[in-house]
Amino acid sequence: MNKYQHIRDAAYYANMELPKLNLVVFTFGNVSAADRELGVFAIKPSGVPYAELSPAKMVIVDFDGNIIEGDLRPSSDTKTHAVLYKHWEIGGICHTHSTYATAWAHSHRDIPIYGTTHADHNTVDIPCAPPMDDEMIKGDYEYQTGFQIMNCLNEKGFDYHEVEMILVGNHAPFTWGKTADKAVYNSAVLEAIAQMAYLTEQINPQCARLKDSLIKKHYERKHGPDSYYGQ
Question: Would the N or C end of the chain have less CB density within 10 A of its end CB?
Answer without folding.
Answer: C
